[in-house]
Amino acid sequence: MTAKLDTTDRRILASLQADAAQSLDSIAVALGVSLNTVWRRVRRLEEDGVIERRVALLDNEKLGLPLTTFVQVRTDDHSAAWSADFAAAVDAIPEIVEFYRLAGEVDYILKILIASVADYDRVYQQLIAKVRISDVSASFAMEKLKFTTELPL
How would you classify residue 32: left for phi > 0, otherwise alpha for psi between -120 and 50, otherwise beta? Predict the structure, then answer.
């Protein structure tokens, strides 16, 4: 279900996406609305699940995790039990930061942030020890050309 957002909601969301640490008062001043308006709308957007949470974005390279790896997974078992086991295995590995089920030739894609190829092998070994996978293919990012968490509003 798509949330019904007006221009003020979208401006508040854009402001929070750019810097979630800023005060609601500073957002109100920047948008030319009252603090109470911003507070009520942010609270409603949180209650409606439009704002899932407010987090700090960390620099993976400065934290010693410079290697971004995209892993394509194919399986020949599409049962609910296998899917649940696979999801639990992925959830237990903190280096896997994104996990998607896909349509097409590849069944799943994982985004892994790690320090080295040896770390990739360790994660790979953890994964295949927990679930049977038909095929795994990894691609290592050479350069980060665009990275944003800001959604188009």
Answer: left
Half-sphere exposure of 67 (CA within 13 A, CB side): 15
> In angstroms, what CA-CA distances link 124 with 56, 91, 93, 135, 146?
28, 14, 10, 12, 26
Q: What are phi and psi of 70, to 5 degrees?
A: -105, 125
pLDDT at 2: 83
Q: How many domains does the chain have?
A: 2
- Residue 88 is part of which domain span? 67-140
How far is 46 from 49, CA to CA, in rounded Å? 5
User: Which amino acid, residue 48?
Assistant: D
With a cut of 90, say whether residue 14 has pLDDT above it: yes
User: What pLDDT, in 10s, does the model give residues 57-88?
Assistant: 999 999 999 999 999 999 999 999 999 999 99
Tokens (6 digits) for 65: 């995790």
Report how far residue 28's alpha carbon sits from residue 130's, in angstroms, rounded to the nearest whole number: 50
| Domain harbouring 109, CATH code | 3.30.70.920
Residue whose pair of structure tokens reads 């949330």 in the numeric block: 3
